[in-house]
Design brief:
Blueprint: E1 6-8, E2 15-16, E3 31-33, E4 38-39, E5 54-56, E6 63-64, E7 77-79, E8 84-85, E9 101-103, E10 110-111, E11 125-127, E12 132-135, E13 172-176, E14 179-183, E15 193-195, E16 200-201, E17 217-219, E18 226-227, E19 241-243, E20 248-251, E21 265-267, E22 272-276, E23 297-299, E24 305-307, E25 313-317
Parallel strand pairs: 1-3, 2-4, 3-5, 5-7, 6-8, 7-9, 9-11, 10-12, 11-15, 12-16, 15-17, 17-19, 18-20, 19-21, 20-22, 22-23
Antiparallel strand pairs: 13-14, 24-25
Length: about 325
């Protein structure tokens, strides 16, 4: 099948490596989906000269680092999530200028997030969660929504080099509001996000993220981030899921966040935040104590600590009463 252009063999029980005979195809498939099998070993060296556009190899058993064999000028999707890959995220990924979806979650990658990813102006989704990444978050990471660009993928016409759209419709797994959902087709053109959760990242949240005005998901949870929550995050006007829990963030929760009218999941739990929780208005009226718990110096209406007139926490629990006194608000 030397002219094969699409190879979709997902959700089976294939095992062993991808055979080297793959390299005998005249053009090699532009659409390759071998996800959810038992594929192991290394990947064919011909990947370096292929015209692959969409690669789905998630939920398999390859081990070791990503080699330089992955190198193509027209890739749109690279899904290597839920495998056993090790080593660092290679710098050459920054040369995949047409890449839109980079999914590397649930592996064993270590080292820093390469700044070369900042060269990928067309990225719509970065998910490197559940790895062993360390260092600081590159402030230059940029995300775009395909819906706002002149390009489109997944069945919508798009021209770049020899690329053409295909009929195959493969879902992409994205964690929203602590639950994983699968998105595919035209819906993907409206989805954008950065998920860096469950790593060992340090440093502060870059204030440059305020320019990601169309981003939908932003997750930094379960890291070792420090410093304040940038008030400029209130510029993320389209954000729906904002999770910065389980870090070492300090300072107040900026009141400017009340202007995020599409926010449906918000968590700053288990940090070192202090002061008063945001006023229960707009979207923030829908959040419960779990969004703020684990911050000993945080006080507010939902928490067991009252706030004094200066905004600091009081040691008296809300339900504490003196003899002969009824707190009418609690009643």
């Amino acid at each position: 099948m030397s002219d094969l252009e699409e190879l979709v063999m997902a959700n089976n029980h294939f095992e062993g490596p991808i055979p080297m005979e793959f390299c005998k195809l005249n053009h090699s498939p532009q659409f390759l989906d071998l996800s959810a099998n038992n594929i192991s070993g290394s990947f064919p060296s011909c990947f370096s000269s292929s015209i692959l556009s969409h690669v789905y190899l998630s939920r398999n058993k390859p081990k070791g680092p990503i080699t330089s064999f992955f190198n193509s000028s027209c890739w749109v999707t690279l899904d290597l999530s839920n495998n056993h890959l090790t080593g660092s995220i290679p710098n050459w990924i920054g040369t995949l200028f047409t890449l839109s979806y980079l999914l590397l979650k649930n592996n064993h990658f270590e080292g820093g997030i390469p700044v070369q990813l900042c060269k990928l102006n067309g990225l719509s989704l970065i998910d490197v969660s559940n790895n062993n990444l360390s260092g600081t978050i590159p402030p230059c990471l940029m995300i775009t929504t395909l819906n706002d660009s002149s390009h489109a993928y997944f069945g919508i016409p798009y021209q770049y080099g020899n690329y053409r759209s295909f009929s195959a419709d493969v879902p992409i797994e994205v964690t929203m509001k602590t639950i994983s959902y699968f998105y595919k087709g035209r819906v993907l053109t409206y989805l954008s996000g950065i998920d860096l959760s469950c790593n060992k990242l340090t440093g502060e949240i870059p204030h440059q993220f305020q320019y990601l005005r169309d981003i939908i998901v932003l997750k930094f949870s379960h890291n070792s981030l420090i410093g304040p929550i940038p008030p400029a995050l209130s510029d993320l006007s389209q954000i729906e899921s904002l999770d910065r829990s389980h870090n070492y963030l300090s300072g107040n929760i900026p009141s400017q966040l009340l202007g995020l009218h599409f926010l449906s999941f918000f968590s700053v739990a288990y940090n070192n935040l202090s002061g008063t929780t945001p006023q229960r208005t707009g979207q923030f009226a829908t959040f419960e104590e779990s969004s703020y718990e684990g911050n000993p110096f945080l006080c507010g209406e939902l928490l067991p600590k009252n706030c004094s007139s200066d905004g600091s926490s009081s040691l008296m629990p809300k339900n504490a009463t003196n003899e002969g006194f009824i707190d009418m608000k609690v009643f």
